[in-house]
Amino acid sequence: VSFTVTVLGSSSALPTSERNFSAHVLNVDERFFLIDCGEATQIQLRRFKIKFGRINHIFITHLHGDHILGLPGLVSSYGLLGRKNDLHIYAFAELENMMNDFSKFLGANLPFSIIFHHLDPHSTQLIYQNSKMEVYSFPLMHSSPTCGFLFKEKEKERNIKKEVVDKHQLSVKDILDIKAGADLINNAGKTIPNKDLTISPHKPRSYAYCSDTLYHEAVVPVIKNVDLLYHEATFSESNSKYAQETMHATAKQAAQIALKAKAKKLIIGHFSARQKNVSVLLNEARQLFPETYLANDGVVFNVDQVRGT
Ligand SMILES: [Zn+2]
Ligand SMILES: [Zn+2]
Predict the structure, then answer these.
(1) Which ligand minimizes its atom distance to the CA of 232?
(2) Which residue in 60, 122, 185, 209 could disulfide with 91, CB within 3.0 to 4.6 Å?
């Protein structure tokens, strides 16, 4: 079952010929979650062959142009394509006003509903869940209210061994109980421990995104032990004064957060156009956290490979 992150854009304030604005897609079992939506995100979705009709949930970290200006265009295209499914947008309340103004201005009568879910900039919140996973928002520290997101699979039931069902002629109720962790008392009255009947399920997988933000240690307990962390790294150490001024992080700071959170793998991105050579950032991060990788547009990170399973 897939759990992958595709980077659609990895630049900060201004795009370059190689890097589009912030956006990426998380694919969990062929459900697609779009995270941030900088200008021309819909073109990147096409370019990297993401089935964008399958995106029903969009998460927006904050209301700076480089993270939102692709939304009106994407929504307008969904309208032209005759989309029917509801589109859920998780963002600060002001985005709803902006999108309503755009719709009025364009006179667009969309054939689908947009359902807004307003984020809380002050505390960690469960903002979405389905039968398989949960999504949390948590506060970051930036020049405008900003949230990061944590995507986490739910704890799964144990898998019953195939041969056990026939051998003990289990009823549906027995099977449900055993999957939930119960032992079995067989016809001879003997207790068979659950561990002999079942195999452990896939460990729940997790992914966290922290952009845009200063070095902000308060996120560490929220994202503790995350499999894959995507942290912004707008500047190198030599440009750290710009990082402070614009309330962004350096690559080294991203690595410090990954280290403290015991993340398994780190992606750095949101690079400043000032950083002509991002390998400098990669080296600075890897000195502290060797499992660091660059968010280049179009790169796909597979959480299962991170875990070595
Ligand atoms: Zn930004
Ligand atoms: Zn920003």
Answers:
(1) 1
(2) 60
